[in-house]
Design brief:
Radius of gyration: 14 Å
Number of domains: 1
Number of helices: 5
Number of strands: 5
Distance between the termini: 32 Å
Order of helices and strands: HHEHEHEEHE
Shape: globular
Structural class: alpha/beta
Helix content: 40-55%
Strand order of the largest sheet: 1-2-3-4-5
Length: 147
């Protein structure tokens, strides 16, 4: 699997096609994107939209994690993810088994952009996603110690 910039551009293009401002943003709307992502990467993905990241993060991420995905794509309606949000994503990536990466997006001028890619430092998928989204913050975490 070699993703690169082309994958990143196509990824955002597909997300923007599904989530147009004012359109229903229920998670079922992302099934075509999730299918495309899985086809391209060989990894499962859960996509979740949050109109208010601070208030909805726990519940929406909990629901997404129930799908046991390899990757979670978060679409946050806030203009920016605050440092505290990225810190929470870091903890989730560290402690949730099987989760290889979290891609955090926010809306800027009615378009989605990736603001952070959070994942395991030894994950090839995390590395590939950071290459696909070079302008995003790269947050590499070590796996939680076992025992």
């Amino acid at each position: 699997m070699k993703l690169g910039l082309e994958f990143g551009e196509e990824c955002l293009h597909r997300l923007n096609a599904v989530v147009h401002v004012g359109v229903d943003t229920s998670n079922r709307r992302f099934s075509s994107f999730a299918h495309w992502f899985a086809e391209r990467t060989g990894k499962s993905v859960a996509v979740t939209y949050m109109s208010n990241v601070s208030r909805q993060m726990s519940a929406r991420l909990g629901a997404a994690l129930m799908q046991t995905p390899d990757v979670i794509v978060i679409l946050g309606n806030n203009s920016e993810f605050a440092a505290i949000h990225v810190e929470r994503l870091e903890k989730i990536a560290r402690y949730v088994g099987g989760l290889r990466a979290i891609v955090a997006c926010c809306r800027v001028k009615d378009r989605w952009r990736v603001v952070a890619v959070v994942g395991h430092e030894d994950s090839r998928l995390h590395h590939e996603l950071t290459q696909a989204f070079p302008d995003a913050a790269n947050v590499a975490v070590r796996s939680a110690p076992s025992g």
